[in-house]
Amino acid sequence: MVRKAIFGGTFDPIHKGHINVAYDALNIFNLDKVIFVPAGNPPHKLGIDKTDSNIRYKMVNMAISKEKDFEVSDYEIKNKDISYTYKTLRYFNELEPLTEWYFITGEDCFSYLEKWKNIEEIFNRCKFVVFRRQEFENKSEIIHKRENIIKKYTDKILFIDKPILNISSTKIRKCVRENKEIYDYVPMEVYDFIAQNNLYKK
């Protein structure tokens, strides 16, 4: 059976940490493909300023264009409704019903999984691949929630136990505003695109 993963996120901008996570998931869980799905209107970020979705999509496309095992989808961007995960999974399941689907997310989002809309449907449609974030590594509340979710959905959750690179999109945007170098954080094509289009200066 074909095994593919959906990697959702705002990707504002995509960075090398995202790319490393995708590679780890691909290799550890023997996936055939990782599909990056830039968020359109994520429910937890409604009303928060985000870079135009088409620009974020373009940066993802640039970052993965040379990777044969990565793809990017504009499903959530084209869909003007709120970008609920269950809807995205429903779309891909119906598109490829014989594919075994995985969903990649960070430990911070995973810890609040039971608040996600239609969580039972989500677990019926995929397995979760969860990567660690260094800033959440030692928070007892996160650990407690993680343990409870694992007990309830144990056969549907897989972990990448190596920590993600200490990079975040928030940190990158802050560096740009402060005229600090971001060359080590983002793929070269994305670096050039941010500079040429004067992104994140305000």
From TrEMBL:
E.C. code: 2.7.7.18
Pathway linked to the protein: Cofactor biosynthesis; NAD(+) biosynthesis; deamido-NAD(+) from nicotinate D-ribonucleotide: step 1/1
Enzyme class: transferase
Pfam family, one: CTP_transf_like
Domain Cytidyltransferase-like, first and last residues per copy: 6-174
A GO MF term: nucleotidyltransferase activity
Gene3D superfamilies in the record: HUPs
Keywords on record: ATP-binding, NAD, Nucleotide-binding, Nucleotidyltransferase, Pyridine nucleotide biosynthesis, Transferase
InterPro entries registered for this protein in UniProt: Cyt_trans-like, NadD/NMNAT, Rossmann-like_a/b/a_fold
Known catalytic reactions: nicotinate beta-D-ribonucleotide + ATP + H(+) = deamido-NAD(+) + diphosphate
Function: Catalyzes the reversible adenylation of nicotinate mononucleotide (NaMN) to nicotinic acid adenine dinucleotide (NaAD).
Family: Belongs to the NadD family.
Protein name: Probable nicotinate-nucleotide adenylyltransferase
Organism of this sequence: Clostridium oceanicum
Gene this protein is translated from: nadD
